[in-house]
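To: structure subgroup
Subject: Chain for Friday's discussion

All,

I'm putting the inputs and outputs inline so they're searchable in the archive.
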Amino acid sequence: MISVFAEDNRAFLAEQYDARRSPEHALAARAADQLLRDAGMKVPMLPCHFRIAPAEHAALERATRLLADAQDKVLAHLCATLTADELVAMFDVPAEMAAHVDWQALPSSGLRMLRADIIPTADGYWFCELNHFSGVGGGEAYHAAHLHAEILGRPVTGISPFRQLALQYVTECRRAGLTRIVVLDTPGHRAQGYGQHLMLQQYLRLLAPDIELAYHDELTYPVQWLEPGEAGRTLVHRLVTFDDTTDNGAFLARLRACGAVLSCMFEAELKMHRRWFALLCDPAHHHLLTAEERAAIEQYVPHTAVVGPGDVDAMVADKDRLVFKRSYLYGGRGVLAGDQHTAEELRDLLTRDADATWYAQRRVYASTVDLPGEEGFSEPYHLVLGMYLYGERASGVVVRGAVDSPVVNGSRSAGMSWAFVV
């Protein structure tokens, strides 16, 4: 499918910016930014909202499901054929994390909750990450963009990803007899400006007022809730990854040992490892998949491969066509665009740490749209989209944009917004 996302939105954005001379535009931009600040977010709102054609949204939703299904099948196969030690080596699992992984539970899909990051390009949409995590960010952009459109006098309709996640949690609580939900943060994560999922908390209060709802970190979590009787009726919504814990995951492991149900544990984080696209691209695994799943990989996943010791010379020679990624690093860390480094620099970076595993992925170039910058001059913004999938409920798409780097993520984003199905 040829991506028309950027082209469709040029006219759509021009209509919004025609109104920049009116007070409504300034009011809308300020209100959307204020909503994000009230939600604890440091990433600002892009001064616009986007649209996506229904057929394109449906295709991306279907592709997200197919790739997630394919990943589950490959994971089940790996768990059936490899030992725990072999899985630790394959996914570079830190020893501190490996100690808390329930290897028996690893093949189980559990609660499906993910955001697929997707690059719109001139020749189609390409998936760049599958983020399996309950605390994945960006959902606040839906609410900010919805408010922006309403105040601008251009109302839109859509479904918040937090509504989808809240329904998943309420359904699980009813099924398992759980009567309490705790949103679990850490002081360090809270200070980073990724929010406290306040909109999720609001939906939970509205959808299930009988379920006790609380927000805590490891320092304020009530000790009595660690007793088996109390823990056994509690669902814990994790906001932080293993890297953001201050105790190498010990408190999360304690919660699970006490009987609490966690939205996801470290097993899910293994599904975010950057080896996964190499595994999906590996023909050795394609016999496990349906024809539809294989077709989705071919259409939406840029070819990805492990950079072995004997591959460095060839990869460096082809560097301008590749991007290199490393294990679990988030926020744009561990991502090298080959054409931004000399051959000598790249070779040094790829071989400096003998224990590090790098993955080479075919470079795709994000479409850009021109948006007014701080000085009023138009600047090209690189875009990355995000499709949320909670159980079978999809919600998309969040739009993140950056001016100074084609690597767009939470820490490098100049702003975020939402694309409504129009």
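Points worth raising on Friday:
The mean pLDDT is 91.
The longest helix spans residues 54-81.

D.
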